[in-house]
Amino acid sequence: MALFGSGGPRAVTVGAGLLADVLEAPLVRVDWRPPLERLEPDPAVDAANQVAVGRVLAVRPQLVAVASALDTIPGMRPDLLLHSGPPLTWEAASGPMRGALDGALRLEGRDSADLEPCHQHDAVGPMAGVISPGMPVLVVEDAETGRRAYCNLNEGLGRVLRYGANDEAVLDRLRWMARVLGRDLARALHEGGPIDLGSINSRAVQMGDELHNRHRAATSLLFRELALRGLGAESLRFIDGNDYFYLNFAMAVAKLACEAAADVAGSSLVITMARNGTEFGIRVAGAPERWFTAPAAVPVGVFLGAYTQADANPDIGDSAITETYGLGGFAMAAAPAITRVVGGDARTALEATLEMYEITLAENPNHQVPALDFRGTPTGIDVRRVVETGIQPVINTGIAHREAGVGQVGAGMVRAPLEPFRAAHRFLST
Amino acid sequence: MALFGSGGPRAVTVGAGLLADVLEAPLVRVDWRPPLERLEPDPAVDAANQVAVGRVLAVRPQLVAVASALDTIPGMRPDLLLHSGPPLTWEAASGPMRGALDGALRLEGRDSADLEPCHQHDAVGPMAGVISPGMPVLVVEDAETGRRAYCNLNEGLGRVLRYGANDEAVLDRLRWMARVLGRDLARALHEGGPIDLGSINSRAVQMGDELHNRHRAATSLLFRELALRGLGAESLRFIDGNDYFYLNFAMAVAKLACEAAADVAGSSLVITMARNGTEFGIRVAGAPERWFTAPAAVPVGVFLGAYTQADANPDIGDSAITETYGLGGFAMAAAPAITRVVGGDARTALEATLEMYEITLAENPNHQVPALDFRGTPTGIDVRRVVETGIQPVINTGIAHREAGVGQVGAGMVRAPLEPFRAAHRFLST
């Protein structure tokens, strides 16, 4: 928190104009571009995709509990740390990932632990996405099926574990979050009942949040629900000081929704886009046990203070699950104010959303964009459409310093690499 | 509340398409139209207007207290009722105004009272705008000058006094507001300190509120401030159930800001637009003691339930002070979701704001529209520009039933009549 004060990341206007120029070209919508690959129509895949995306849209997410990762996440164990993105070894981990893993080991009082992706445990975590056994996690449940997804709690901005910072102040905050915030939330939910996160998502998108890097409305609506349930004053002040607090809720909702399509045979729907700071990877509905990966790109960003593009780590975090669910970069037409954080202008924000309709299967009726006369956000990326059009999914993202222990240096935009989509298409076609 | 349930007015989609057609024509921006009157340039007026609008923009509104009208509003007395719009007699009052006045008399236990406009007592009130001596009012103070403005508290939607309903349930709610809500608010402010309403306005406009008929963001941000000050649970629930709660705060802020320009000699800046259900009137900076009036028009609306245009009362309420301050109809580009309430579509909302730049003196840096790349809303109507261009200020508004005792029947759009602007121009020119 020390880096940026309590008001969230300040907009750095120096360089934002140039950044807009950089961002403009790739985001401009084109009516036609030469297909990279001409795919034969495949009615069986189309039918599978309709089933898959229908399942995604049918999910009704409720926050039902907050409890420790060890007590809730399937397959969690005392000697395991979860991390963002596709599978990773200690040796391949980038600076911020190592910083977060080191901090989590100290938090748990351990010398070593096994590593597995959050995504393989029905969980997600932003940036390094490290979830250790003792951390409190959100439990989000589908009211239709009872299926669940999990995410850790948001620490705030600046020097925080998820950006690779791990000094004692960072660990002290995490201890307070387990001891006070997590227990307050658990009690408020136990006594006051579940919170309808689908309703908060829906209203927030109509209040200028895209729910990846802008959460002021959703955090406010969540605050209302928690205050009415009598959440403790200290916890309310913590949430009030962090307009990113809802990010982790939005991620758990998106994970719950996307995972609903896992195992729909033959479907080319993307159910995960995630980055571990070294590699970018996707999972698809028709083969959910596999990761298709490529090296992670470096986001183009708006930098805080004296930091520059040279300080930026390659793309990191499970938070691209929001784009996978039609939010974040896909919903920027609903949130032109996000350009103060990630660069670009109102036109590029609008065009990002319009372009993403070309690679998606549905328009989400729960996420309506008032500026597009309540058209739903483009939801459900189809591997085939990405391969055919060459349009790379757009992701807006925080940027971590490339060295362990520093923290956040900015925010910006990045495009998903095409290779994993091509590899997934080849796999599904054989 | 009984009419519409607790979720606010529902969007009535039947007829909304037709309504959009009706609204579209007058809202379409034209690059040139023949001037109705060719005015000679007047550098003295221009200079006075720059002083006047500079004063409006310099106001820093803080909510400092809540107390009874009798204890706070200058010139309030036990035998006086304040009402919206220009001066009015009992005989000339419309149905909803009579309903509200009758209800206020019963609330105060009186048989009769004198009538004076809120605006002549540094106060404002939405719709009928009736403020009786015992009602709690918001006290909003300019941190720069200590000057104050006042507004009553918002009752919610449907069957409420300000729309002319006055049954026992309406009066019981008003009694609870004085006994519980008003005192809770007073205590929270006394113990927790003032609330910066300029900051809430600023953030809310970037969250899709236009602060006349859409207040979901501002109410949420206000809720956060009040919950952190320990407001009582019953009062928090009341506010949580009414996303219009901030309307009265926005009105007091706008009144405080606009009145800052009163008495700037020679200025043609409009400092009040207000309607009493019978007449529409304006006040201008160069002659603040005078009203320039014309018959009130009937808003074109989206109606609730079985109500139709034929049920609509002529335009009523001080809430057009928000348009006078560059909000409401003037800020609809920031709030395309408002079209679900008042009709039109995203394009007409955008065009309403763009058109209003042609009759205003400044762009408010505190009210930035993300969709216009953070351009400030058009603020400070110039009587001369209205007369020259013939562009009528656009107002979005709730619609009351024309008979006493019924309540709200819809919401919609209306244009200010030109005559008062012409009369003010003639007066200032002689």
Q: How would you briefly describe this protein structure?
A:
The structure is a homodimer of 430-residue chains. Chain A has 430 residues and is of the alpha+beta class. In chain A, a hairpin with a 5-residue loop joins strand 5 and strand 6.
Q: State the separation between the terminal residues of chain A, measured CA to CA.
A: 50 Å
CATH class of the largest domain in chain A: Alpha Beta
Radius of gyration of chain A: 20 Å
Number-wise, the strands of chain A total 16
Largest interface (CB within 8 Å) is between:
A-B, 29 and 29 residues
Q: Work out the helix count of chain A.
A: 14
Looking at the structure, the CATH topology of the largest domain in chain A is: v583 fold
Which class best fits the helix and strand makeup of chain A?
alpha+beta
CATH homology-level superfamily of the largest domain in chain A? v583 domain like
Strand content of chain A: 15-25%
